[in-house]
UniProtKB/TrEMBL annotation:
Species this protein is from: Amygdalobacter indicium
Family annotation (Gene3D superfamilies): (Glycosyl)asparaginase
Protein name: N(4)-(Beta-N-acetylglucosaminyl)-L-asparaginase
SUPFAM superfamilies linked to this entry: N-terminal nucleophile aminohydrolases (Ntn hydrolases)
Family matches, as InterPro entries: Ntn_hydrolases_N, Peptidase_T2
Signal peptide: none
CDD domains per the UniProt record, alphabetical: Glycosylasparaginase
Length: 322
């Protein structure tokens, strides 16, 4: 039995590729790297990899994390610039005995020394988004204080292979117009991702500053270990953190998660409606699902073709400077 699940519609092409690899007996780690790289390389997904939206200095800073559920090894990078596939660098770091999480210039030096591909990650399309945002802020507030872009979508994937190994990976460019050096939950083990092949794996997307307060990915796996189903664990973790944050602050940022258990069953939960995810398994072709909230539960249905068409249309639509 193999299975793979990923956050957002943008995971579809990568998961479709990974499904073929898993069916042929490829390892979870290899399949995940293939899947995440596919997302990183697509320039129209503006929250991950090439084409990712820049920080307030118009620099693309990328974060990624990887975990092997068999031996609990972890690799991660944060704030890395001008390298094509941060997920591959993170996975390589997981093989090191120590120095597994590198940031900024240290991560870049390691990537360069290890032979990873250098690439200018800032695209012309991302520049247009940047300049338009500047003009929009100036028009609305007449001030230099830039607010983060509301779309901060991390691609996160959890994968089970035929050998019953589970791995998990994340990749993101983080908040649009973030302060240089800002890091969210995505590369943080336990927050953005966690995997244990004897139990399952989970990964999160949303507002990192809130997600990391609940160590939500670890919490989901812990709940599964205590006997909860993967779906119940996801909903309990998201609802608990959402309620806690609202009690303290009166509000909570977006929190969405997907997870797999050791049998390949998936779970999903979100504190927003409209979160999308992709699942594939030995028995299920790669399918995009869209969620809605109802009485504390996250319900999901396969995305309609109209929704799928609109998704690609809006992301590839021509842009012009305001």
């Amino acid at each position: 039995m193999w299975a793979i699940v990923g956050t957002w519609r943008m995971a579809l092409e990568g998961i479709t590729k990974a499904a073929g690899e898993l069916s042929a007996g490829r390892s979870a780690g290899d399949a995940l790297e293939i899947a995440v790289k596919e997302t990183e390389d697509y320039p129209y997904f503006k929250s991950v990899g090439y084409g990712g939206l820049p920080n307030e200095n118009m620099e693309v800073e990328l974060d990624a994390g990887y975990m092997d559920g068999d031996d609990l090894t972890v690799g991660a990078v944060a704030g890395i610039k001008d390298f094509a596939n941060p997920i591959s660098i993170a996975r390589r770091l997981s093989l090191e005995k120590c120095n597994n999480f590198l940031v900024g210039t240290g991560a870049e030096a390691y990537a360069s020394k290890s032979g990873f591909e250098r690439k200018t990650m800032l695209t012309q399309r991302a520049k247009i988004h940047y300049y338009n945002r500047l003009k929009q802020e100036q028009k609305e507030s007449k001030a230099a204080n830039l607010k983060p872009y509301i779309g901060h979508d991390t691609v996160g994937m959890a994968c089970l292979d035929q050998a019953q190994k589970i791995c998990v990976a994340t990749s993101t460019s983080g908040l649009f117009m973030k302060r240089p050096g800002r890091v969210g939950d995505s590369p943080l083990v336990g927050s953005g991702f966690y995997a244990d092949s004897t139990i399952g794996a989970a990964t999160a997307t949303g507002l990192g500053e809130d997600i990391m307060k609940g160590l939500i990915s670890y919490e989901i796996v812990r709940c599964m270990e205590e006997g909860m189903s993967v779906q119940a664990a996801c909903e309990m973790a998201v609802n608990k953190l959402d309620l806690r944050l609202k009690k303290i602050n009166g509000t909570a940022g977006d929190i969405s998660v997907v997870a797999l258990d050791k049998k390949g069953n998936f779970g999903v939960a979100s504190n927003i409606s409209g979160f999308s995810f992709v699942y594939a398994s030995e028995k299920t072709a790669p399918t995009v699902y869209v969620t809605e909230l109802k009485e504390g539960h996250t319900l999901y249905t396969p995305a309609k073709q109209e929704w799928l068409d609109e998704y690609i249309k809006t992301r590839t639509a021509p842009l012009k400077l305001l």
